[in-house]
């Protein structure tokens, strides 16, 4: 396989974007990535669009075909890639394979979702369509409900507390204040969301023990990366950041079929694959973007990806190791918790953040000297997971 | 002013009990002081309401225009038995709510306008005016309607309001009722605040009602427009 370089990255701020259509958002993020790369008139061979549910959210499908036309990239190949909340990661994997295999030289990957076109309960219902229709969905199971059950089991098994969950929320919302692309720009406190006797009114129960501030917001947004070969990238203007490791693994569709529901096997396997391919270990990672759709997931993923032993993720959090300036900063972007989680965009946005970090372009949230980055995009409730290792080459 | 005619135009007023100020701890850890606004406070409140009339998003323009008219009407003695509560953080005005008494027993919830968003300030202020109606004025029911989807979700769904016949004074959609029983059912879940307010916090709030600049108010309502495309 040929080395694959992320030559350009682009994003639009994640927020509620009433004024933009889904296509506006995808096109702007895509143009930003092409501009960032300084691609000029060089043709794009393929476009992959990570998007989960534009048909349900926006009554529009075939968005990849529409995007290539909107961007005047005809006759580039175009595919929409759907893998639930890991749609963005899957789109990047497909773009990676296209370049690595020699099938394409220049690939644009765009992830995006416009979720705020529907009201919150409807958005939760649409996302819940990824659950098993006959043994989960019909009983009213939603992703927050799954997170609640998972969190309860994790707490009992590993001693994680609600205070740990709140620490993740506070850390990531603090990081979000440093990210102009983050949806939530608000510093929160332990008193305000947990310890004050009336904090339950600010942060009501969503699915015990998950409270409001343990959940990511529902956002609109898009992000894009331009992938190419080293040969072409060397002629462009940006420092080289390569995708050195890719991993993907699946697990049972339903949670009930897992022998230990707290064991996120697909996270472990996808991460191991990515590290093996990159030829480095978790200890070599300088910055990580994990899929904290719910605060408990950041802790659990940090262990399953190999950064901390099981049961030690919360302790590392307590010690401040996962803060910017800590041993392994996790989610300096604010993560899904603060940056937002337009589902199809997330996997791409994570890689965009890593590229900014590895180039030294992350502004106030820059992790000093970051050379190796890791991202994890968690589909379903851990039933289809993608992991990436990125490295700075120059 | 011809006071002879004015006497005909000014509605009589009920004596209402005072609403004791309270402090609500926000998710940020910030302290929201909720206290009763007096008629003399209205000119400064109108300064904060005026910019919101320019915002179409979430029907802020309609709500702000009506709040403006209601407060002005109260200030100039053209609205009967209206009360207004306001929210301040470090003295800065962040929202107002108002209600009018149709009778001793029945309140007409008018509007809730928060000029800072994302902290449940509107929800805390709405809860405070219901607290005033039920626990201090001791009303039996408050009629409520909504002009925005956010208001509809927040009031109608969170409090399980009961659909009522007839019309709300604001016109518009179906009126809903919050009864005393429903209020007390949901009070622990939705009504925050502690009393007495620490003296130093109350002193800051009472010293001056600070109003943000129009630009700041618009940015807070619309969400910070980051300097990126």
Short description:
The complex is a heterodimer of chains A (394) and B (229). In chain A, 38% of the residues lie in helices and 18% in strands. With 394 residues, chain A is of the alpha/beta class.
Polypeptide structure, described:
The complex is a heterodimer of chains A (394) and B (229). Helices cover 38% and strands 18% of the residues of chain A. Chain A is globular, with a radius of gyration of 19 Å. In chain A, the strands form three sheets. In chain A, strands 1-7-4-2-3 form a five-stranded mixed sheet, sandwiched between helices. Chain A has a four-stranded mixed sheet with strand order 8-11-10-9. Chain A starts with a strand and ends with a strand. By secondary structure, chain A is α/β, with parallel strands linked by helices. Chain B is of the alpha+beta class. Chain B has one domain: Aminopeptidase (3-Layer(aba) Sandwich), CATH 3.40.630. Chain B has helices spanning 3-9, 42-49, 60-75, 121-136, 149-158, 180-190, 199-207, 214-222, and strands spanning 22-25, 31-36, 82-89, 92-101, 106-114, 141-144, 162-163, 176-179. An eight-stranded mixed sheet of chain B has the order 1-2-3-4-5-6-8-7, sandwiched between helices. In chain B, helix 2 packs antiparallel against helix 3 and helix 4 crosses helix 6 (180-190). The N and C termini of chain B lie far apart (55 Å). The chains are: A alpha/beta (394), B alpha+beta (229). Chains A and B meet through helix 8 and helix 9 of A and loops of B.
Give start-end ranges of low-pLDDT stretches of chain B: none
Write down the oligomeric state: heterodimer
- Tell me the CATH architecture of chain B: 3-Layer(aba) Sandwich
Q: Give the % helix of chain B.
A: 25-40%
Largest sheet of chain B: 8 strands, mixed
